[in-house]
Design goal:
There is one protein chain. By secondary structure, this protein is mostly beta strands. It has a single domain (5-123), classed as Rieske Iron-sulfur Protein. The chain contains no helices and twelve strands. A hairpin with a 2-residue loop joins strand 8 and strand 9.
């Protein structure tokens, strides 16, 4: 699979550092995995039917107070791709990280790219 998809997120900055995470073949379609980068947990979601197909959020659920978002249920609410936390089932936008049920709560989102079958995540320095 030789394709490129990019999602630009609010934590993207000019000083962001690209980190190679894995091959797209390591991902499970329509599901999440957790990556540990510099002691930071990143929830990575591969949704091949969508454009963009890759999303990356902080793995920590601020409402459930646990690092579990990568194990949540991927879905769609009113046309917005979301992850439902496995703890209390709040929905977090995969596009900008805000919680749909509690708008003042959000999780960090990260820019991710698929280049030559490899997944890269941009982390602020």
């Amino acid at each position: 699979m030789n394709m490129k998809t990019t999602l630009t997120c609010k934590t993207d900055s000019p000083s962001a550092q690209a980190v190679q995470l894995c091959s797209v073949d390591d991902l499970i379609a329509d599901s999440g995995v957790c990556a540990l980068i510099n002691n930071q947990q990143i929830a990575l979601f591969w949704l091949p039917a969508l454009t963009p197909a890759l999303y990356a959020l902080g793995n920590y659920d601020p409402l459930g107070k646990a690092s579990v978002l990568s194990r949540g249920i991927v879905g769609d609410l009113r046309g917005e791709p979301v992850i439902a936390s496995p703890l209390y089932k709040q929905h977090f936008s995969l596009q900008d990280g805000h919680c749909l049920e509690v708008p003042e709560v959000s999780v960090p989102v990260y820019r991710v790219e698929l280049r030559d079958n490899q997944v890269f995540c941009y982390l602020p320095q």
